[in-house]
Amino acid sequence: MLPTNLSRGHRLLILCICCISILMVSLDVTIVNVALPSIQHDLHISISGAQWTIDAYTLVLASLLLLSGSTADRIGRRRTFQLGLVVFSLGSLLCSLSPSLSWLIVFRMVQAVGGSMLNPVALSIIDNVFTDAKERARAIGAWSGVVGISMAAGPVIGGALVASIGWRSIFWMNVPIALVALLLTAKFVPESRAPRPRRLDPVGQLFIIGFLASLVYGIIEAPSLGWSSPYILGCFAASAILLVALIFYESHRHEPLIDLRFFRSAPFAGASIIAVCAFIGLGGFLFLNTLYLQDVRDYSAIKAGLYLLPMALSMLICGPISGYFVGRRGPRIPLLVGGALFGLAAVMFALSKGSISDQSLFTGYIMIGSGLGLLNAAITNTALSGMPRSQAGVAAATTSTSRQIGQSLGVAIIGSVLAAHLTEVHAGGVFSASAQTSWWVLTGAGLLVVITAIVTTGAWAKGTAQRSRSLIEAVDAKLPASG
Question: What is the pTM of this model?
Fold first, then answer.
């Protein structure tokens, strides 16, 4: 465990170092989205190729987060965090040198291997450093607010880099940020491990990779091959079989990769569902909006980035507010308000049918940014607050996995809706028709957030969290220490 005598200043410094990781990873996501049209034109790729540029990263990230979280609990959180910084920066450098789409996808996967060792590990460090519930809620709120900073800076920085130097330069900036974080981590972050870390679970890991890859591949490639294609139906069938096999296998392991006991806690299960839905919204919105601003409105990359500032600033402001509110009153209101704001913004865009003024566009952006800012901090606090601190790495990684699954699905689903009109994507009317369907999909995601929040944040839900934690601690106490 981390030392218990850390000063407040030292704890805040550790929080800042952990925030650098999410700043770097989140900047990468927003910048790559802004650069997508330029990458498409330079490498001559289709919409499905653009989808894979995003989803190759998020898929690998989602697949490895749990492994990275449990590895950090075993070999040390600081050590794992440092390794992640090195691999992420190396992957970024290789991305900038990619000669084709195939190599870019491969190097994005290298980036993701490093990224999987950053955010969940940083969250488990924060969870162990800030032991007071209210202080931890505020710290996680600040950590989540950094997503807003990246959302504000990413599109503008990315647009400027793409316009002045080219899309390859967006990957260069990760290298100096990672080096600074690496030096600060070595000097100021103490090492910590779980008292009884979990054993490795390679079979469960393979099931997760197969399940996610077959599901997302089927969604992305269905528009070109046909939804009734035997190949696509086979992908979906394989995904379903692998999911059932994963649940069956993990439920019979003493130390599973995915601890299904966590999901006996209604707040934890609810936070996971909300994370998937919220990030379906974020991933789908970023992909859809980037193509709309640059392909339909014909804006430059930097102008498209500037248009996203209202959303980004709203996310930045509402993240810490959500953390503060959760620490005082619990997560129910931030989750309800966040889901409602996102859903209402999606309804507004769906009803506009492509004819929307800048004022209405910015209003929708503010609603989406505020909703996601409120949701992100509340998701993390809800997931970690009821779990044993010794399993912080696994719990944080499970929630982060839900986020990345959501983002992968958002890009895959929305991209597939747009790809149905592939040959006419530059025709504003046709794009708007397919975008309208996309917005109704995102409306459904917002509605599901609200329903899940109502069900999983009441008195009954809190009781399930207490019973789940007691059960996990009692069972784990009887198991021998892992070697």
Answer: 0.77
